[in-house]
Every structure is written in C-alpha cells, then in structure tokens.
Amino acid sequence: MAAEEPGSPAAPKTGHARRTFLFGAGAVIAASGAISAALTHPAPVEATGGFGADWQFGPFVPGCTDVDFDDRAMPLVSVPHCVTPLSWQGWHPDDWQHLWVYRQHFLVPPQLRKNRAFLRFDGVLSATTVFLNGRRVASQSGGYLPLTCEVTGMLTDKDNVLAVAVDGRWQQDTPPDLPEYPNPTAIDFYQPAGIYRAVNLYGTPQAYLSDVYAQQIAVLTPSRAVVVHCTVDAAKAVKGPVRLTATLSQAGTEIASAVTDITGLRKGETNTTVTLEGLEAVKLWDVDDPAMCDVVVTLSVGGRKVHTYPVRTGLRDAQFTVDGFRLNGRPLKLFGLNRHQWYPFVGGAMPERVQRRDAEILKNELNVNMVRCSHYPQSPAFLDACDELGILVWEELPGWDHVGDTAWQELAVRDVHDMIVRDRNHPSIIVWGTRVNETLGQYTLYGKTDQLAAELDPMRPCTGAVAGQKGYVQPLYPVKENGGVFSFNDYSRPPSRNAPPPLRPPRHGVPYLVSEAVGTLVGAPYFRRTDSADVQREQSMLHAWVHEHAAADPRYCGLIAWCGFDYPSGWYHSLRGVKYPGVVDFFRIPKLGAGFYRAQRSPSRGAVIEPAFYWDFGPGSPRGGPGRNALIWSNCDQLVVTVAGRRPVTVLPDHARFGHLKHPPFLVNLTVTGQARPDLTIEGRVKGQTVLRRRFSADPTFDTLAVAADDGAITADGQDTTRVTLRSVDRYGAPRPHAHGVLSVAVDGPGILIGDPFLDFGALGGAAAVWIRSMRDTPGTITVTASHPFLDTGTATISAV
Ligand code: GAL
C-alpha cells in the first residue's frame, strides 16, 4: 500500500535524473504512463502519448523550469493531480494558492521530430506556463479549457524536459474568479490547483486536419445532411492536389461518403466543407437509444493519405419551443440535475473512469435525462459518457454571478469560443450557456458571445441562467439565428414550512427552462445524513414538488434542480467547506433525498422501494417511528407495508397531489408505540405481481459494514482509479446514519489510497468512500479493508490488470 502523494506524510517516491518518457516508433509507448484514452481530442497520428504517471512535482523555485535544474529529489506524482492533499471537508485555499512546477523527462522517436508536434493540456487550474527544453512555449490563464501548443522543432533526440509552471492562486482577471475580491470564498465552489486533466503529446504531418465539426442539417426531413466543416493547417503551401474525404458510419457500416478537393492549399489555416447526404438509413440519437455515428475525415496530398481525423457524433433534432422541449420531434420534459465536478481528496483530479461514473449515476441511479454542467466546461470523459448513455447536456462558460472588466470579458469570449470548438460534436449537448450564471444585463458582452456561438455552431440555442425578480423581468437578449432559451434559477420559497414550494410561471413568448431549484435556498440550509430524518425527507419532497410543477405545465421545457452532488465551497450555507444541497453526497452515495429520483423510472428497468426515513429509532429519528406520514418512494403500483406483528397495509401512490409525476410518493402511517422494535417489510407490486420485497431492521445488533468497489478491475497504468464505498447498514442492507467511531481503511497490493485512512464515521452519517488508483506496470490484486470498532470488518478486491 502506498499513501497518496504529494505532500503525503509518508515518505514520497522521488524522481531521479533522466527517467525517460519514451515514444516508440509508429506506436504509442509511454514508459512513464499509460496512453490516455482522450486521444481523439484532437485526432491521433503517428506517435502519440499521454503524460500520466511519474511527473516530478513541487513548489515553484527559481530555475525550476530550466533544463538542468536538479530535480532528482522531487517527488513523483501522477496526473490527474491536485497540488495538495485534501480531506472530505475542511479545505483551506491557502494550501493550493501558490506557485508550483511539474517536470517530465522524455525521449521521442525521430518521426516526431521530423513532423509537427503539439502538446495539449486538457485542464490546469488556475494558470499555466509551459516550458520545453528551457524555452517558454505558451501560457494560459483559466482552468477549464484546453491549452494546445505547437512544439515543432523544439524536441531533441536526447532527453527532453517539459516543465509546467502552475499558478494555483486566485486569478482575479480571469473567469470565473472575481476582479474585486481576491478571495477564494467569493464564489460558490472551491477550485483546487493542479494539472487535473490529461496531458498529451502528438505529432502531425506538415499539413494536417486541426479541427472537424459535423454540423447536422434538417435531421427530421428527407433531405437530412451533415456538413462537415474541416480546418486544414499547413506549415507551408502545398502544390499538388489536396483532397478531403468524409465518411459517416454507424455501428461499423458506412452509410455515406463525399469528397472535396482543394487546389493550391495555402500556408496556414484553410476552412472548407464536405457535405454528406443520403443519410436516411441513419438511426437517430435519443435519450433511450443513444445511437452514435462516426464521421471520419481523411486528408490526402498528391493521392497519399496523410492524416485522418475521426469524430463521434449522433444525429438528433433538439428544439426548445414556447410549448416545451422536443427531441426528434417528440415532446420530452427535461428532468435534470446540476453537476459540479469536484470530488473529496483531489478536487477535480479524477481520471476518465471516475468522471464517467458520475454520468452513470445520473442516468442509471437518478434517472435524469438532463444535466447542467454548472458552472464551467467539464471533463471530456464526462461528456463522452453523456453521449453514450443518452443524457442531454447544458454546457456553460466558466463564471459565477459576476462579470469583470474588459480584459476579463475578453477571456469570457475566448472561453465561449474554446468551449464550443472543443465540444460541438457531442450529440448530448443541446444548449450553450453563453452568459455567466446569474448575471444581469451585459447586453454588449452577451451579444458578442451569442453571435460567436451562432457562427461556431448554428445548431444550438444559447442561454444563461438568471435569478430573482430582476432576472425574471429583465429585457430579453436579442435572439440570434440559433434561437434562445430563457432559463431561470427558481428559488421561490413556500408560503409556510412544509407547504409545497411554488414555481414562477413560464415567461411569456420564450422557450422557458428552470435551470436551478431547491438547493439550499429553499428548505433547510443543509441536507446531510446527520441532519434530522425530517430534513432529509423534506429534501426529497421539495425536489418532487418542483418537478411536479414543471411536469404539470407543457410550457416548461423542464427543470434542472440544484443539485446532483454535494460540493466544496466556502460560501453561503457551507459547513466546514462543504455545501450539502446534493441529492447524492460528495462521495456519490445517494441520500434519502435521492429517493424521489431513484423511483422515477419504469419498473421494467428494475423495481425501486426507497423509504425517506431510517427504520432505526435512532438519535435523528422520532422515538415513535417515522410517524403518520411516513414517506416511501417507489415505482411500483402498490406497496404492502408490514410492521412485524401487525396487519399488512396496502398503500397507493399519491396521484391526487402529484398527478404529473410518473411515480408519486406513497404515504403510510408508521407510528410505533411502546418499546418494541419490530422489523419492517415493504413489498412492491406491479400489475398485481410482487416485484420487490425489502426488509428493514430496527435492531442495531446485526448492523454491518458494506464495502464495495465500483469496478472489479482497473488498468495497471498508475492513473486508472475506482471508488470503494463504505457504508454502515442494517442486517438487510438499508443505510444506518448513526454509526459512531472512526473507520480505518487499509490497502494491500498494488493500489494507492486516494482518501483518508481514518474517517470519522459519526460525522459522515455512516457513509463514505475512498478511491483506489493503480500503480504503473504493477498488476495484481488490490484488497481494501475497512475496519470499525463496532461493525464488522469489510473488504473489497480489485484486480489491476
Ligand atoms: C445559486 C447559484 C448556485 C449555487 C446556489 C446556492 O444562486 O446559481 O451556483 O450557488 O445558488 O445553493
């Protein structure tokens, strides 16, 4: 077992001179890390590799970007990386608000030196300066979009030294940070520094495809087409014939192809299009059947294929109208949650598998069909997973409740450009957030960003969430060619405690979407497992009510509630640096509040019975049991509820109050008198058949620890990571929130613990997780053992292969 680096109290591994990062000829061979799967951004060519494991890392000191800097004592870390170890709460921005440096030594094959070469950083917080072999190559301020730098002619045939200076400080002139307040608690999310997304080096020929955008035209008509916009970048003018060939295939079968010839390719960038027609056979992408397509463009010079650029996309028609949202011509109510990208222990620095997992949780556990990437562009792996799973996406520029000065605004426009160019092939994305969350006015700036979006992607509308009475009534932004959506963060409060929260009516004459609701601004300020059962129950009811309202009126395109996952913040209503509005906690474990979402699926996808109470008669729960209006979420037609020793009670869903929810709540009297602590059984019936039976024990004697890994196997590359959940449960597996004591976690075998080895299980409400990362080139069995003073010891095993 090894402790997490860097800054780990355990002795870190350190670097040594001239380790090499080796690119094998014609193939991807990375001696210091596995090949990143993000190689399609942009298209890989001859020699490509990801810089993953084994970066040398430390505080920035004078000379640390020089070639001959003595880096032998620097600890080794792997990317994705956060500059400081973090816990699951109590983050201190002072820990990451410094200057840092990452170094890599690597060898490249001769081919890469003959051709053009590029470095690409997918995400570095908060500002980056790149040095290669002692020369400053590029810099960027802003941590959510890629930095690509050409390094042609700068690679040597000996040891190459890449040094990346990372400024982890508040960037007051860069979105989303605020110019006036150099204060990391001034916005509602922490942004810990580091190279937290992939880094790749790739080579291209002298003339290559630098971008491909597959624009869909009239998808629902017989004249459906894909106009493939191609950018060719040539180091020098090309005399011979240049041809672009585009093909579109689905499930391995080519459906269409077309060519465009370029005569006299000039030096620099040339934009042209290839139009693919005859696409009747293409199956449309949909939320229930996300049929993807492959569009592949090949560049040939003088009859010889020199470069290929594949993009994955899907054909679908998404329309926001004054009468609601339509996907492929059919009305679809958007049913969504907002997502922040932060995790315990590492901030944003989780690799692809873990990013994808969030999408799986949203789709498969919470049954949403839409996610808003609040409030910045998120990981490419998360968006790829949304494409593959059929989740619709709102992506927005970095920003939160503030617009800065001219220089800040120029960067905001840059961000809109870079976001759309990075992500416009994703079929999942249906709307661009081109306006900073909860800002008013700014007609000049948003005129620019909306115009830019219309030019870069005529397919999708623009939006921006506004809030409050002023936002609701402010004049609309002029609608550009690609239309617009009015999005409102609706935090309307209920008239009294326990009354249903209202929603404002849709604004007249515009497509209307609720972009946030509930959160911590309606109802209790925190929704934690350690809060009273009433508070946790209320969270699920508040979410149910706002979705009920949105479902009841066809003019709402839908509602995206606040929010999916708890997140780190030092702002209003945070507690020791964590905000608790998620229906799923920071560790991605569902709370009682998630019960409403979990039940909103067809029973054919699996029956659900989720009480919004704990059957524990414990400290947070009423002594007399869950009471007269005990709430149960289920997708069954009927529940038969039996308290041991009593007559079974049959309960029906509350269609009277929740007439527009697919699966309304069930309310049942579960008052228990006396000292008896009987078992509870809930049986779910669909069309008269019992489809699920769940039992709940009030007797804590048999409580146990459930330890489970999300994945049975991960890749032994020093980057791949999976989660291990640690939950206190009753003898039947139902959650127990009142576990006391400290949980200790140990890892045996070739795995790195990303997490605290000792967790205060009481403060966590008996549910937590750690993540396990593989070690490079070290296959084997990883065993995670969790022990607790009162509960059994639990283990999970993961194969590193
Ligand atoms: C909203 C904001 C969200 C979050 C929320 C607080 O106004 O858009 O980002 O801060 O308040 O729960």
UniProtKB/TrEMBL annotation:
Name of the protein: Glycoside hydrolase family 2 TIM barrel-domain containing protein
Segments forming domain Glycosyl hydrolases family 2 sugar binding: 101-205
Every Glycoside hydrolase family 2 immunoglobulin-like beta-sandwich domain range: 208-316
Family stated for the protein in its record: Belongs to the glycosyl hydrolase 2 family.
Single GO term (MF): hydrolase activity
The entry's keywords: Glycosidase, Hydrolase, Membrane, Transmembrane, Transmembrane helix
PANTHER family: BETA-GALACTOSIDASE, BETA-MANNOSIDASE
Transmembrane segments: 21-39
Any single Pfam family the record assigns to this protein: Glyco_hydro_2
Domain Glycoside hydrolase family 2 catalytic span(s) in chain numbering: 325-463
Xref: PROSITE patterns: GLYCOSYL_HYDROL_F2_1, GLYCOSYL_HYDROL_F2_2, TAT
Domain Glycoside hydrolase family: start-end pairs: 705-796
